[in-house]
Design goal:
Layout (H helix, E strand, L loop, with lengths): L1 H11 L3 H37 L2 H33 L8 H34 L6 H26 L4 H18 L1 H16 L7 E4 L4 E8 L3 E5 L5 E5 L17 E9 L7 H14 L10 E7 L4 E9 L4 H21 L12 H4 L6
Antiparallel strand pairs: 1-2, 2-3, 3-4, 5-7, 6-7
Helix pairs in contact: 1-2, 2-3, 3-4, 4-5, 8-9
Amino acid sequence: MKWFETWLENLAGGDAMTLFSLHALLVVLAIVVFNYMLRHVLLRFGKAARKADTFWELALVASAKRPLSVLVWVVGISFVGQMAQAQTDAAILAFIHPVRVIGVIVCLGWFLTGFIGNAKEAIIRRRNARGVKIDRTTADAVAQLLRIAVWITTFLVALQSLGFSIEGVLAFGGIGGIAIGFAAKDLLANFFGSLMIYFDRPFAVGEWIRSPDKQIEGTVEDIGWRLTRIRTFDRRPLYVPNSVFTTITVENPSRMSHRRINETIGLRYDDISKVKAVVENIQAMMCEHPEIDQDLPVVVSFDKFNDFSLDIVVRALCRVTAGAEFQRAKQDILLKIADIINSHGAEIAFPTRVNLTRALSPVDA
């Protein structure tokens, strides 16, 4: 090293500024080379972990790539700054050490938050691959709470490293929290709304929800601390503040145990003699249909004399709840009802109009 230093001094020709520039250039070159080697090592380690299917190692590698690269640059640049501080008495260079400490702390917090997110996704994928159902909403809530705890701890440790008293910061936070609470009441309302969603769990990610109070209907894609993202059926994203869910009624059709069939079939008045047989045949068909829950009431009966039809009500609960499957089952039932009506020589009624001009006699006309 002494020989190398002597060689650099001779190369600089005794000029201190040129010697510093050479040192800085060598440090930057070392940073680039070390970063390249670090990425290569992490890449090989990641391939080995992927081959061995060890999700903890994969989460570590995925979380460490960018923070480690930034950490190398922070340490290297701070080293250059220390060399510059030795050459000059510039006051701004006195901040090199605290900036390096804060940079290291932030990189560590960055790595931990990334590891929490990657570990959550890895655990969910591993459980799904094994056929074990995991509540993604709960997993997201726990991961977000852990990330918030990491960043709060990072902030307090950074302040402590700069010489601030944590006790004083906490005391100031208690006093200033009142003013901040009034200024950000909507933000806090959304935060507590998200907590209510996580605790009460009226819906989860992937479920279909709707509200009779608001024009809200679709599939839940993400539950954040401020907003819930819902994908409507025409594929538009709908962003709903979480505080809204504390004041509205929310229906969760995804958790239905049954879906109701409630239809009114009208026969012509000319088919009054055939109503009883049609009702009995429909009742028998409904009681034998595989998609109808026979443990719950199945109602098929003549209901009333309508303006232009004899109304038969058909009410039952279907076992299938998914939209497409339910529509197929309902279609099959309605077509079978139509076949029963046709088999008795009856017809489904429809509104008719009478030409009053023709109906009246010539004298009345």
